[in-house]
Amino acid sequence: MAEQTTNTFREDLPKLYGDWGVDSEIGKLRSVLMRRPGKEIENITREDSERLAFVMTDGDDYDPELVRKQHDEVARIYRENGVQVNYVEEMDESCPNAMFCRDLVLGTPEGVIMARPGIAVRVPEVKYAAQAAAKLGVPIIKTVNGSGTFDGACVFWIDRETVIFGTGTRCNQSGYDQVSEELYNMGVKNIYKLSIPRRLKHLDGMLSIADHDVALAFSRSTPEIVYEALEKRGFRVLEIPTLEERDNLAANLVALEPGKVLMPAGNPLTKKLLTEAGVECIEVDISEIKKGGGALHCITAFLKRDPVPVYPVKE
């Protein structure tokens, strides 16, 4: 009789699929999935509300070439810091929100979970993101289905055993149940569930982690359960000092490695806080991208980060 499988999926992953996996927001970033905006963002105006998952902000209509130029600059900085940048090459031209890949793909320790957006116009995007992930050899361990809705940016990793999980307009109870089941299957022990304020939609509008002991939050939006989860694990939670910098998406940054972040330009007070806490900050102008309602964390789906230790809990 053939020998039965005794390995876990995680143990088989490197040999069968490659070196993928995400269990934090700060482990050294190795590989990402992005969508360089194509024809889908051309001829988008402020009056196209039925086609958009956002209310276009900051003045004039999209300048497609400037969006692409800024997107290319982000990708250049990633590569300069040793990150493999992979692209979703194909896309339905009726999907102007597709550059916000984090909403489509949740990286986990065992591969990716594909979302099912709560906004109808975004649903077709997932097919193309899934095709790109599969082409790379990244295992797709779950696609949210049935009546479930879920955006990848509704989950935030603290460490291998702990996540913050937000529900709201972009994630319903079915989506939460489906994704939570998979997270528990792969060893997550602590899920801090909260309701995301309607105006913010995703966790990265109010929260980020910058180092092993440094987090960033906007206190008027961030519930106590988040402070509890982080402070019990030894984090200092710095508070974004103004509503203006919160609205300028100061929290929507990407850690390149522990203590080094890429952040949206134009948030000097938040940058000062992070720098004084020992975090190296690289700024990038994404003013045109931000018209779409998202920033750096939104346009970046994480496929591979180096593991971080499980943080001891202080009672």
UniProtKB/TrEMBL annotation:
Q: Which residues form a coiled coil?
A: none
SUPFAM superfamilies reported in the protein's UniProt record: Pentein
Give a yes or no for keyword Glycoprotein in this entry. no
> Which biological process terms from the Gene Ontology are attached to this UniProt entry?
L-arginine deiminase pathway
Output the Gene Ontology terms for molecular function: arginine deiminase activity; transferase activity
Q: Which UniProt keywords apply?
A: Transferase
Q: Name one Pfam family in it.
A: DDAH_eukar
Q: Does the keyword 4Fe-4S apply?
A: no
User: Which PANTHER family does its entry note?
Assistant: ARGININE DEIMINASE (PTHR47271)
What's this protein's name?
Amidinotransferase
